[in-house]
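dumping this here so i dont lose it
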């Protein structure tokens, strides 16, 4: 069991994995599921985990995760220069108790955030945020210092050196979220952090009575247009997908047609263009599109699985990745009219993030049930080694 956005409430005791770089071609196929056949799975083994990726140009991208050390995990950051990935020095506040990055977001080459969690011993963890300013990665304290079982910062959006957003899972309420209890249960609001260039500010999504929020991802295209997604579990009513909008002053929970679902990934492109993806528990994938007026169902027909991340390269080129109902990699591409499924030739890969800057320049990362990380690059016609 690995620690991911979807597995945000699972134990961190088994997060150790082995990373590989994907190296084999592929072709597009019709919308079908099931195991991949004839896949070349030769790869370069790297001890560690790839968890998040963000490309800002053809010659600049960041990748984060963790590297297997002795005795625990250490933080892993790599950077793409157009020719190769190179390791960057980062801080490891967890020491021998594990330091794990789960997501990365870069606004420019000198402004990036990596977020996740780190161990403090005794099975306890604290939230982790590190900032890149062009000269080095430095840990930036998040509000509150109490240790909890499995808190983690799951999503981050870098807008400028003076603005970034972070979302946190439900176990991260050492950050001072306002919980209340009644004879009928617990009410827990959604918590989103905003960086103002000097410190983190807390914002809350008001929870319905006896409801609990879990926020998984956040994306922003400007200081006045950001979206955060997750789920709101309501006792006796089940979950609903959450799409919360930032207008520069407040977060507002905006209605969407995803009742009974969880939303795991979001990409904010403009005030009239955003995408959100997720799944219905044990059922089909969920894809929503924001057109400036409302969220609308945009899912392909009858694909079972979970979508974890989405990225718009252009209005006619959108990618969504995850895992299908057969526990095989799921990579979908929107061409402006319909979705196509693209073969990802590493059987068993569970894709967790995707980022692209052109139709022939897209990165995807994930892992397998045997704890093998996967990093693949799409050049417009095939996946090749990075």
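and the seq i came up w/
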């Amino acid at each position: 069991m690995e620690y991911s956005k979807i597995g945000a409430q699972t134990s961190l005791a088994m997060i150790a994995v082995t990373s590989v770089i994907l190296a084999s071609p592929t072709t597009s196929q019709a919308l079908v599921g099931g195991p991949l056949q004839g896949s070349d799975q030769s790869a370069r083994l790297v001890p560690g985990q790839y968890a998040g990726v963000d490309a800002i140009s053809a010659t600049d991208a960041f990748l984060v995760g963790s590297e297997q050390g002795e005795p625990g995990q250490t933080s892993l950051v790599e950077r793409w220069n157009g020719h190769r990935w190179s390791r960057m020095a980062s801080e490891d506040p967890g020491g021998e108790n594990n330091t794990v990055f789960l997501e990365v977001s870069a606004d420019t080459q000198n402004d990036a955030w990596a977020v996740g969690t780190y161990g403090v011993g005794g099975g306890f963890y604290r939230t982790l945020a590190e900032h890149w300013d062009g000269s080095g990665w430095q840990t930036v304290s998040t509000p509150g210092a109490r240790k909890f079982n499995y808190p983690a910062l799951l999503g981050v959006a870098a807008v400028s050196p003076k603005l970034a957003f972070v979302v946190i899972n439900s176990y991260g309420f050492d950050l001072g979220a306002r919980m209340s209890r009644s004879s009928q249960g617990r009410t827990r609001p959604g918590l989103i952090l905003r960086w103002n260039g000097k410190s983190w500010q807390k914002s809350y999504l008001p929870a319905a009575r006896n409801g609990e929020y879990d926020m998984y991802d956040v994306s922003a295209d400007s200081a006045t247009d950001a979206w955060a997604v997750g789920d709101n579990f309501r006792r006796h009513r089940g979950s609903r997908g959450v799409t919360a909008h930032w207008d520069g002053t407040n977060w507002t929970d905006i209605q969407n047609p995803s009742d009974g679902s969880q939303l795991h990934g979001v990409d904010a492109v403009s005030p009239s263009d955003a995408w959100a993806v997720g799944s219905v528990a044990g059922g089909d994938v969920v894809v929503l599109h924001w057109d400036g007026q409302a969220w609308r169902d945009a899912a392909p027909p009858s694909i079972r699985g979970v979508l974890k991340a989405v990225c718009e390269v252009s209005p006619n080129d959108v990618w969504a990745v995850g895992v299908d109902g057969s526990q095989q990699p799921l990579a979908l591409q929107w061409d402006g009219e319909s979705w196509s499924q693209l073969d990802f030739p590493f059987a068993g890969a569970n894709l967790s993030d995707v980022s692209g800057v052109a139709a022939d320049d897209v990165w995807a990362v994930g892992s397998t049930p045997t704890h093998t990380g996967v990093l693949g690059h799409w050049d417009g016609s095939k996946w090749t080694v990075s």
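Residues 1-45, 172-185 have pLDDT under 50 and may be disordered.
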